[in-house]
Amino acid sequence: MTLIIRPYHALAVSCVVALMLALPAQGDVRFYRTNKKGQETESEFVFNADERGCHNFPLSRKVHRVAQVRFEYCEVFTESDCRDDSIVTARWAGKRKRSPDKKEPTTRLSPGAMWVLSEEGNVKIRSWRCQ
Known about the structure:
The strands form two sheets. Strands 2-1-4-7-6 form a five-stranded antiparallel sheet, with no helix packed on it. A three-stranded antiparallel sheet has the order 3-8-5, with no helix packed on it. By secondary structure, the chain is mainly β. It has one helix and eight strands.
């Protein structure tokens, strides 16, 4: 089988690639809970997980681990409306050698998939904010 690329195909592909590069990369935050056996499950129906700003869960969610990509940082809260007095501290459970911001527990979760909220299990979360 021979693939023939016509000039107008190359132009169309070039336009699509240029458009994809021009669009800003969209962020995403995901929340995981653990069951009694220690198995993780991703929380479903997380609305606005790809948008910046403060967002409330309709009801509290049990969360063990948080993953986020393409945001500068995210924060999670035990109360609605991202109340500063309810911010949760997380610990990075992945490799630390290349990321100085992941060596100590923090409230600002930089991009990555291994932010653990508690070693004892799930934490009830009501809201999150990503920037």
